[in-house]
């Protein structure tokens, strides 16, 4: 058994979800190698080489890996596979992994397994279907198992101080059929949604994008990230990168506060593994209360400012 | 301009249906359950039809793989403005084990047969939540892929695509032909009007089988069981904000 993890990073630092994928790979057993592809990403290589559980790092340094486009990364991973014959190849089920993993799988003529939440054995995985309303146990009959890992389902691997060896990755040609032009990232000093300990999300009950300022104030008081339901995204209140749910991000923070969110199935799929769930909604019949540890039936426009004030007072007191 | 666009339309259990797991754990109950077009595929069809209305595309061909009832899904696509449709018939029970890889093999074969220049699919089907078909199809054709698209602009031999990524938006440029997968904000799909539903009845649906196309769809995975997720127990209601703050304090959250 041997696993290759394709590391995700933004050019500056390693995406934390990659550490969760390392833990998943450890559950399979065997040697774990990591591949870092990037343009001048030696800092990332250093970081990856210290992750516990990884025994070797392959590094491919080339301008064409900027933006981690799947057209460029896939031939590189195929070249590594030709040389090392891994039994398992994986990445995180983030925008990067979801984009890249199936492309690689098709090139290996393998049926990929998306967004796994558990590993039963070296060829058998569990994953959610129907927005988390059912859990399927799936056995792969392919020689090479190609899968993506849901970060919230696995702990993050530790980062130590001893670095393992780094090798040059085998060279591969990029087809140059796509190019990365740039990005417009939502600027925020708040924690990143998928790795935050506390998340506060707003739904259609907020009534406008401007009213999300109520949540931002509470979030900044608590050091929380801010998310949203699909309804709030559909209504144009906030951008899609804030969406928590089946078709958005999956989060599992210590504390999740749902404000003005009714609790549609597809939203619950993205947050019901949170440790503690608080719901604030003026409708006592809202389905969100069926999963909430603490439910407050009250108008959010009154409750949230009061909550912010009392949390502030508690912190200073 | 002769840009033929192929659009994948999956028939899935309607998004509003509360799915139930079968007692024998082999899958979920589908008999007598309302089905409709995968919502992301409606967005894909809408985008293709808009490209035709803008005279960027010359023809929109809708495809669905699965049992006979997929033709109802294709009629919806035709009523939304697709010109014709292809039903690749996979009867039950084989349709239950049809994987995205098999579908992608069908799509890529049809793309070649039909001289297609652009494929648009939904980013994810709301039944298996796989999020694979677009990427797999692009790989099999060796075309570039523009997944999770929220805006596409075709410009001659290339296309500029704004993509939804974890931290915000990303802009890429891909050469044509290419595969696009539609995300939520690409457009708002239209409703099929009655006159268009009537017109759609006259449009052509070709029926083929995977064997006609020479495509092997035998499954590579085996679903061992499908079970209910662990149930989360509802907690209690709190009276007011003060009590909520006390609870948050007791957990050490504040």
From TrEMBL, chain B:
Keywords: Electron transport, Mitochondrion, Transport
Pfam families: ETF (PF01012)
One cellular component term from this protein's GO annotations in UniProt: mitochondrion
GO terms (BP aspect): fatty acid beta-oxidation using acyl-CoA dehydrogenase
Span of domain Electron transfer flavoprotein alpha/beta-subunit N-terminal: 25-217
Molecular function terms, GO-annotated: electron transfer activity
TM stretches of this protein: none
Compartment(s) of residence: Mitochondrion matrix
Subunit-structure text: Heterodimer of an alpha and a beta subunit. Heterodimer composed of ETFA and ETFB. Identified in a complex that contains ETFA, ETFB and ETFRF1. Interacts with ACADM.
Task of the protein: The electron transfer flavoprotein serves as a specific electron acceptor for several dehydrogenases, including five acyl-CoA dehydrogenases, glutaryl-CoA and sarcosine dehydrogenase. It transfers the electrons to the main mitochondrial respiratory chain via ETF-ubiquinone oxidoreductase (ETF dehydrogenase).
Protein name stated in the entry: Electron transfer flavoprotein subunit beta
């Amino acid at each position: 058994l041997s696993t290759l993890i394709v590391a995700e990073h933004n050019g500056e630092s390693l995406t934390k979800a990659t550490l969760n994928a390392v833990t998943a790979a450890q559950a399979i057993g065997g040697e774990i190698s990591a591949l870092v592809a990037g343009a001048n990403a030696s800092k990332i290589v250093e970081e990856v080489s210290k992750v516990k559980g990884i025994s070797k790092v392959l590094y491919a340094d080339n301008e064409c890996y900027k933006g981690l486009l799947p057209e460029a990364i896939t031939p590189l991973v195929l070249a590594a596979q030709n040389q090392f014959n891994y039994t398992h190849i994986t990445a995180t089920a983030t925008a990067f992994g979801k984009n890249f993993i199936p492309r690689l799988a098709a090139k290996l003529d393998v049926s990929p397994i998306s967004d796994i939440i558990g590993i039963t054995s070296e060829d058998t995985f569990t994953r959610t279907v129907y927005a988390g309303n059912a859990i399927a146990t799936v056995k792969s009959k392919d020689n090479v198992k190609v899968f993506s890992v849901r970060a919230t389902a696995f702990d993050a691997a530790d980062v130590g101080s001893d670095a393992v060896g780094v090798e040059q990755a085998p060279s591969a040609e990029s087809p140059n059929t796509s190019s990365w032009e740039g990005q417009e990232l939502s600027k925020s000093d708040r924690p990143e949604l998928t790795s935050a300990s506390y998340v506060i999300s707003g739904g259609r009950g907020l009534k406008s994008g401007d009213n999300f300022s109520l949540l931002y104030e509470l979030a900044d008081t608590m050091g929380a990230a801010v998310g949203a339901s699909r309804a709030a995204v559909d209504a144009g209140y906030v951008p899609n990168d804030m969406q928590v749910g089946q078709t958005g991000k999956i989060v599992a923070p210590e504390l999740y506060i749902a404000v003005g969110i009714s609790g549609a199935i597809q939203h619950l799929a993205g947050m019901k593994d949170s440790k503690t769930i608080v719901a604030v909604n003026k409708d006592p019949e809202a389905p969100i209360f069926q999963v909430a540890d603490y439910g407050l039936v009250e108008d959010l426009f009154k409750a949230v400012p009061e909550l912010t004030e009392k949390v502030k007072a508690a912190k200073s007191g | 301009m002769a840009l033929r666009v192929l659009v994948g339309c999956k028939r899935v259990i309607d998004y509003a249906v509360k799915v139930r797991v079968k007692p024998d754990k082999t899958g979920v109950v589908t008999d007598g359950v309302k089905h409709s077009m995968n919502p992301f595929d409606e967005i894909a069809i809408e985008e293709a039809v808009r490209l035709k209305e803008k005279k960027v595309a010359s023809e929109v061909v809708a495809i669905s793989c699965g049992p006979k009832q997929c033709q109802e899904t294709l009629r919806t696509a035709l009523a939304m403005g697709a010109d014709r449709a292809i039903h690749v018939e996979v009867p039950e029970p084989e349709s239950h084990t049809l994987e995205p890889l098999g579908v992608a093999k069908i799509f890529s074969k049809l793309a070649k047969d039909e001289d297609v220049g652009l494929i648009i699919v939904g980013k994810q089907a709301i039944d298996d939540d796989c999020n694979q078909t677009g990427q797999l199809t692009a790989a099999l054709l060796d075309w570039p892929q523009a997944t999770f698209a929220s805006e596409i602009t075709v410009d001659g031999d290339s296309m500029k695509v704004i993509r939804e990524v974890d931290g915000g938006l990303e802009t890429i440029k891909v050469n044509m032909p290419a595969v696009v997968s539609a995300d939520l904000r690409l457009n708002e799909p239209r409703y099929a009007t009655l006159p268009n539903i009537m017109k759609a009845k006259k449009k052509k649906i070709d029926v083929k089988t995977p064997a006609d196309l020479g495509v092997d769809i035998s499954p590579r995975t085996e679903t061992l069981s499908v079970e209910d997720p662990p149930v989360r127990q509802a907690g209690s209601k709190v009276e007011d904000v003060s009590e909520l703050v006390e609870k948050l304090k007791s957990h050490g959250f504040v």
